[in-house]
Amino acid sequence: MAATVDIVIPVLNEEVAIPFCIEKLYAFIDQHPERDWRVVVADNGSSDRTTEIATELAAVYPKLSVSTLDQRGRGRALKKAWTESDADVRVYMDVDLSTDLMSLPLLVAAVADDGYEVAIGSRLIKGSEVVDRTLKREITSRGYNMLIHIFFPFPGFKDAQCGFKAVSRKTADNLIPLIRDNAWFFDTELLLIAGKSGYGIKEIPVHWEDDPDTRVKIASTAWEDVKGLLRLRFKGRPTPTSTA
Ligand SMILES: Nc1nc2c(ncn2[C@@H]2O[C@H](COP(=O)(O)OP(=O)(O)O)[C@@H](O)[C@H]2O)c(=O)[nH]1
Ligand SMILES: [Mg+2]
Predict the structure, then answer these.
(1) Rounded to an integer, what distance in angstroms lies between the CA atom of residue 100 and that of residue 122?
(2) I need a labelling partner for 123 at 20 to 30 A (CA). Which of 104, 156, 207, 233 fits?
(3) Which residues, 6+ apart, have CB-to-CB distance to 73 below 8 Å?
(4) What is the pLDDT of residues 195-230, one digit of tens each?
(5) Candidates 21, 144, 215: which one to mutate for ligand 1, based on the most atoms within 8 Å of Cβ?
(6) What's the predicted TM-score (pTM) here?
(7) Catalytic: 187?
(8) In the chain, what are the domains?
(9) Residue 59 near residue 67, CB atoms below 8 Å
């Protein structure tokens, strides 16, 4: 039987980007009937017509649903959508499709077929390509990933922040409830807890085209990231057994 795959698209004020994203994503998954795909648009806190537009699209596209929450935070939206899912593989990708969809089958296969509990897109390994990234984002991203390696030598991954990840049912059940961050540090926390728990992490090289339309406030997000690393480094990372 085909593995079930839920693709979550976290969105905050994305009324312009959603229709194009869904059209392109469905064109892609229609070409890949080897998986049983569903798509969830996860909106929290949008003040534009994002929810209405996503709901209209859900009436047209098969197996498309909308998940909403009042409180903001990308991590919060992902936690909800991933834990409410019952799919074998739970993916998320950013609405701007900065990561080329050609990497999606490999991402899913790592979890569905190859025994990894987590698979992540990476812009920092051999075979990846990055286009149009501003120097500021490139430096912040590389600097942050270096900092992770200083705090946690050999973490098992090179790029914590690519908006293109997949987790297994086991990861969603056991690790997602342990993640405290509800915003941008969510991804790093997931990966560090997964590494500490001995869960296999597969990094997939991606083709990334930067989209200048961003909701990230670089200075405050970087500070939250550093605080998150300090919390995990000095208070310890929870593991499924230590909290059981
Ligand atoms: N649900 C939800 N999605 C968010 C939130 N903040 C950002 N996003 C989404 O997260 C994805 C990545 O955001 P983006 O601003 O493109 O980040 P960047 O690519 O790192 O600049 C996009 O799909 C955003 O709409 C939030 O608070 N809630
Ligand atoms: Mg983006």
Answers:
(1) 12
(2) 233
(3) 44, 45, 182, 183
(4) 999 999 999 999 999 998 999 999 999 999 999 999
(5) 215
(6) 0.96
(7) yes
(8) 4-243 (3.90.550.10)
(9) no
